[in-house]
Write a structure and sequence with these properties.
- The structure is a single chain.
- The protein is mainly alpha-helical and 1128 residues long.
- The chain has eight domains: 221 residues, no CATH class; 98 residues, Ankyrin repeat-containing domain (Serine Threonine Protein Phosphatase 5, Tetratricopeptide repeat, Alpha Horseshoe); 114 residues, Serine Threonine Protein Phosphatase 5, Tetratricopeptide repeat; 58 residues; 104 residues, Serine Threonine Protein Phosphatase 5, Tetratricopeptide repeat, CATH 1.25.40; 62 residues, Alpha Horseshoe (Serine Threonine Protein Phosphatase 5, Tetratricopeptide repeat), CATH 1.25.40; 97 residues, Ankyrin repeat-containing domain (Serine Threonine Protein Phosphatase 5, Tetratricopeptide repeat); 198 residues, Alpha Horseshoe (Serine Threonine Protein Phosphatase 5, Tetratricopeptide repeat), CATH 1.25.40.20.
- 53% of the residues lie in helices and 1% in strands.
- The protein is built from 59 helices and two strands.
- Helix 10 runs parallel beside helix 12.
- The longest helix has 36 residues.
- The chain is flat, with a radius of gyration of 56 Å.
Length: 1128
């Protein structure tokens, strides 16, 4: 029976909402308020628990007062209360866990820190529980239709919580738009209201005002909470369209609603909603109605989702995977409707029994559809599942042919590697499919490599070359011709590849067929040649006819319609083709050819020149595609563009498309680049443009051509020089010359291009090049008066002594020309430059010989001031060591570094000290030399001066601040070095004076080196071999100085030698006497137990030995006996 009801747009029925229950809600609210008012009278530990348990009751009551059904039936309570109570207890436990410890400590201590921690804990609990607040109201809420899902359990809780938070209905198929923390600001206001009760308690001494305040705050909180829930639920409902009466012929059930929602969810890719609809009992075997445009079933739609859970649920609930609807299965849809490939979906279907050999209404198997996919994984799964790799569809295409038809070479290669046939029997050859698509020879090459027949025929007897010619695929045609395709093969209608190329207007293919030797006179079944066919085709152009005419196709042949090609184009009024076939034909006066037709009638070079000057590059490209441009014509065209106006862009276009043959030469033997160089600066723009595209300018005499042309045209601007430098950067020859032209160095001098001159010299161009009259480059520079050029030439090895044809040197030419200022660079006296480029070491050599003028000139020529020679010695070091004070002054004035060491570590100061050049030492110190800069081993200049006995230099260094106490790596200070010098070389006065100066400066008289040798021991020859001659007078004089400063006489070295040991060792008797008188201990023994006496005896110095042990006179008593006899 038919009836009319109000329902959703999908036709589902909407039950009536149950009657309002405001009176029961009011009674519950009054009871809850009364109970809440009595809570403060309970014990303090029970009041908080009562408030927590009272919250859901108050919430339900206020929702009921708001017009919501807040008291469900018994079935709804049984279904929702158990999970609700569990969640409520979990929420309460979380709150207590976070707040228990801070609250307990706050009650005990009352500290501010615990109060802050309690506030932080409550805030954290609030934020954690906020996204789940709707769950607290679920037992009291019905759905939008007034129904309680009694059997929903936890699932119902989740769905209804989403609905309460603002999500749309699952049954209506809309998406959820819930935000986790939406409504947080209003909730904060409610929390403030809830806190009013405790605040009233704080400022009141009686409990009664707190009772009222607490009740008022709780009611306000629950009222606003319920109001917020009502607004959040009302907003989605307002957004839904108003239901309209829909006539139905049978009662609408919830199952029908769920099925319709399931279809919508799958079509809109909402897997979560789809799963919910499946759980609600949707009919999983339902098929779309006949009026539906999309006839895909539920399982077919689920295979296209990225989330496969709905598909797995459908299969698990018994939906057959091989069910056919509309000629399709789920596996066919999964492979057909996804370009990226649904690998997981296909795998799931195959694992559950889907047949990969099923075909659709057009004969396509899943493997045919997978051949168009970008992922070979789907094809691999199908092959593993038993798919036929060579199955053909209704058009005779195998999966390999399908992949080739859409230029999917990745899948084609995969199928070939998995035993797909490149020439399947009874099927359309894949090679024809590959030749008919894009002009990409990759697939053709791949198939030919797998033994595909190059002359295999498909339907109507057509070959791959037929297909490539008709599609205008020039690269594919070239590949097939190279592989041996039959050029004159005809199909069932007698059509050859040349006919198809003429019909398609494929000029490049015609050129290739002509070059390969195709028959130009071939006729089709109707007796037409290629020109007859081209003149009937709207795609043929002037270039097509010209290509056929050049090939030798007969223009007078009468076709099947009894007309020649000329008569055919006359009949159609294609006047450009008429003029091409018969240039002498008088066109009607009313005929006005457009620009394209007029261009087509011009010869190709003239046409390209016009197109390129007008920047019609697309048209030029089309012209080049139709006709080939010979190298000689490209040469002429390029020169016309290079030297004319508005031609640079066209020239760049020619170069970019490879139309300029850089190896082709004109009648004079010049390449295109050399022809441009011969134009000089007039072709500057063209040269710069082509050099930017890597035009090669290599070849003998290239730069000389350009320089000669600029000299002839008197172009000497900086821009012309910059272009010459650019040519050099791009590899132009700088050494050769063209014909009888002058060398590049001479020409650059005549132009006055100093930057180019320097670049040429740096590249190794001979500085002795001569001009036509025999003058060298240096003589020419002197004649012109270019002093910078003279300096450059001298710097790079030009010889001032070279003579011209008349015997003059460069200096003679300069004087004869009145250029006396140039003589400074041409006259070298003491040091002469070698006949090569000047090297940094030349400055050191000039400084070593003391040639101040040469050093100054070399510096002015640009040699580095701190240059070093092979030994690492700088010019300043060489001059200082040689005592060349004037050179030292010059170098220091120019800023030479006095601290620069040689490879040996020597510095200019140490070299001057070593050689005893006092004036140079003073100059270096005044020039900023580091006084204590150490040599290897830690030796300072002061130690060197002391070791060499230069007392005056010691004074100068000490006055300049030298460190008197510094020692070298062996522990020797300046005083020890001076003592060693006195022992080995000193004279009585000089040595003693040197020690006196050091001692006066504060040197430690008892200093000891790391060998245990003191100043006194070194003075007495501790480092000298036994028997070495020692000046005893000098040692005595120096010893007196040391004794005057209280030197320690008991010191011993590592051998145990003391002062007396050393004096005895060297036979210094007077020194021994002085030491003994000064208190030296003769009883000291060395490490071998020997005393100084023993050393003297060992060395044979008996007189010195007696100094240690003098023999006493025997007493007379020992010679007398009591009996008067004489004793022994």
């Amino acid at each position: 029976m038919s009836m009319t009801t109000t329902g959703p747009a999908d036709g589902g029925a909407t039950p009536e909402r149950p009657p309002d229950s405001r009176l029961p809600a009011l009674l519950v609210a009054l009871a809850a308020v009364t109970a809440a008012a009595t809570l403060p009278l309970l014990p303090h530990w029970l009041s908080p628990l009562g408030w927590l348990l009272m919250q859901p009751v108050l919430a339900g009551a206020t929702l009921g007062l708001n017009g919501r059904q807040a008291i469900p039936d018994n079935g709804g309570l049984r279904a929702t209360l158990p999970p609700f109570l569990g969640l409520f207890l979990l929420h309460t436990a979380l709150l207590l866990m976070l707040a228990a410890l801070p609250l307990q400590q706050l009650l005990q201590d009352g500290g501010l820190g615990w109060a802050l921690l309690l506030g932080a804990a409550l805030t954290a609990a609030w934020l954690l529980l906020w996204p789940r607040w709707p769950l607290l109201l679920l037992p009291w809420l019905a759905d939008d239709h007034g129904r309680v899902v009694a059997d929903a359990g936890w699932s119902g809780l989740r769905l209804r919580a989403r609905r309460l938070a603002g999500a749309a209905s699952t049954l209506s198929g809309s998406r959820s738009a819930e935000l986790p923390y939406s409504g947080l600001l209003p909730a904060a206001v409610m929390l403030v209201l809830l806190a009013l009760g405790p605040l009233l308690w704080l400022f009141s001494v009686r409990p009664l005002p707190w009772f009222g305040g607490a009740l008022l705050a709780a009611v306000c909180y629950q009222r606003l909470f319920a109001r917020l829930c009502g607004v959040r639920r009302a907003a989605p409902a307002a957004a839904r369209p108003t239901p309209t009466p829909v006539p139905v012929t049978q009662p609408v059930t919830a199952e029908a609603d769920a099925t319709s929602a399931l279809y919508d969810a799958l079509r809109q890719a909402r897997p979560d909603d789809a799963l919910a609809c499946i759980e609600q009992g949707a009919d999983l075997l339902a098929i779309p109605g006949p009026d539906q445009t999309d006839q895909r079933t539920l399982l077919m739609l689920s295979t296209l989702l990225s989330d496969l859970r709905p598909m797995r649920q459908l299969i698990a609930r018994g939906v057959p995977v091989d069910a056919v609807h509309g000629g399709l299965t789920a596996l066919l849809v999964a492979t057909r409707d996804s370009y990226q490939g649904r690998v997981e979906a296909v795998m799931t279907l195959l694992a559950n029994g889907a047949d990969p050999r099923d075909a659709d209404s057009e004969g396509n198997t899943p493997l045919h559809h997978a051949a168009r996919s970008s992922d070979p994984g789907v094809a691999a799964l199908l092959l593993d599942g038993g798919a036929d790799v060579d199955a053909s569809n209704g058009s005779g295409l195998t999966p390999l042919g399908m992949a080739c038809s859409c230029s999917n070479w990745r899948l084609a290669r995969f199928l070939l590697e998995n035993a797909a046939s490149a020439s399947p029997d009874g099927c359309h050859p894949p090679l024809l499919a590959a030749a008919s698509g894009d002009d990409d020879p990759t697939g053709v090459r791949l198939l030919l490599r797998h033994k595909a027949g190059v002359n295999a025929t498909g339907r109507f007897g057509r070959t791959a070359l037929h297909a490539a010619a008709l599609s205008g695929n020039a690269d594919v045609a070239a590949m097939l011709i190279e592989a041996g395709a039959d050029l004159d093969a005809r199909d069932e209608r007698g059509i050859a590849a040349l006919h198809e190329a003429a019909r398609a207007g494929a000029d490049p293919v015609i050129e290739q067929l002509a070059a390969a030797g195709a028959d130009a006179m071939v006729l089709d079944e109707a007796g037409c040649n290629a020109l007859n066919i081209a003149c009937r085709s709207r795609r043929a152009t002037v270039a097509t006819l010209r290509a056929l005419l050049r090939m030798g196709v007969d223009p007078e042949h009468v076709g099947s319609d009894g007309r020649t090609p000329l008569e055919q184009v006359l009949a159609t009024g294609r006047w450009a083709l008429v003029a091409t076939l018969d240039p002498s034909y008088q066109l009607p006066a009313s005929v006005m050819l457009d620009d394209d037709e007029a261009d087509a009638l011009l010869p190709l070079p003239d046409r390209l020149l016009r197109l390129l000057r007008e920047r019609r590059f697309d048209d030029a490209g089309a012209a080049i595609d139709r006709e080939s441009l010979p190298s000689e014509q490209a040469f002429t065209l390029g020169m016309a563009l290079a030297t004319g106006e508005h031609g640079l862009a066209g020239l760049r276009w020619l170069q970019r498309h490879g139309l300029i043959d850089e190896a082709w030469r004109d009648i004079g033997g010049s390449t295109f680049a050399f022809a441009l160089l011969g134009q000089g600066h007039a072709a500057a723009g063209a040269l710069q443009a082509l050099l930017a595209q890597n035009l090669s300018v290599s070849g003998a005499g290239g730069l000389a051509r350009y320089l000669h042309a600029t000299l002839q045209a008197e172009h000497s601007s900086r821009a012309a020089e910059a272009l010459a430098l650019l040519l050099v950067d791009h590899g132009a020859d700088v050494h050769g010359r063209h014909g009888d032209q002058e060398p590049v160095l001479i020409q650059s001098l005549r132009q006055g291009w100093l930057r180019l001159l320097e670049r040429l010299l740096l590249m190794g161009v001979d500085p002795e090049q001569r001009d036509r009259t025999g003058n060298t480059a240096l003589q020419l520079a002197c004649c012109i008066g270019l002093e910078p050029a003279v300096r450059l030439l001298i710097r790079h090895g030009a010889s001032p002594e070279a003579r011209s044809a008349d015997g003059q040197t460069a200096q003679g030419v300069a004087l004869a020309s009145g250029r006396r200022e140039l003589s400074r660079w041409l006259s070298w006296s003491r040091w002469r430059p070698a006949r090569r480029s000047l090297q940094p070491a030349d400055l050191c050599a000039a400084a070593a010989v003391g040639d101040r003028d040469a050093v100054e000139r070399l510096l002015d020529l640009g040699l580095p001031l701190n240059a070093v020679d092979a030994q690492g010695c700088s010019a300043l070091l060489r001059a200082a060591g040689s005592g060349r004070l004037d050179v030292v002054d010059l170098l220091l004035a120019r800023g030479a570094d006095p601290a620069l060491p040689a490879l040996t570590g020597a510095t200019a100061l140490s070299a001057a000290v070593s050689m005893g050049h006092a004036a140079v030492v003073s100059t270096l110190i005044d020039g900023g030399a580091r006084i204590d800069q150490a040599l290897p081993g830690g030796v300072t200049p002061l130690m060197v001066a002391a070791a060499l006995g230069h007392a005056d230099l010691v004074d100068r260094l000490l006055s300049a601040g030298a460190d008197i106490g510094r020692s070298d790596d062996a522990g020797n200070a300046a005083l020890l070095a001076a003592a060693q010098y006195v022992a080995a070389h000193g004279r009585s006065s000089d040595g003693a004076d040197l020690l006196q100066r050091l001692l006066n400066a504060g040197a430690d008289v008892d200093a000891i080196n790391r060998s245990g040798q003191s100043v006194l021991l070194l003075l007495l020859g501790a480092r000298l071999d036994a028997g070495t001659r020692v000046d005893e007078d000098a040692v005595l004089a120096a010893l007196e100085r040391l004794l005057g400063f209280g030197v320690d006489l008991s010191v011993q070295d590592r051998r145990g030698y003391g002062p007396l040991h050393l004096a005895a060792l060297h036979g210094l008797s007077r020194v021994v006497t002085r030491l003994l008188s000064a208190g030296a201990r003769p009883a000291l023994r060395d490490t071998l137990g020997r005393s100084a006496h023993d050393i003297a005896v060992m060395r044979g110095f008996v007189d010195i030995a007696q100094l240690f042990e003098p023999r006493a006179q025997p007493a007379l008593a020992r010679y007398l006996r009591p009996d008067g006899s004489q004793g022994d």
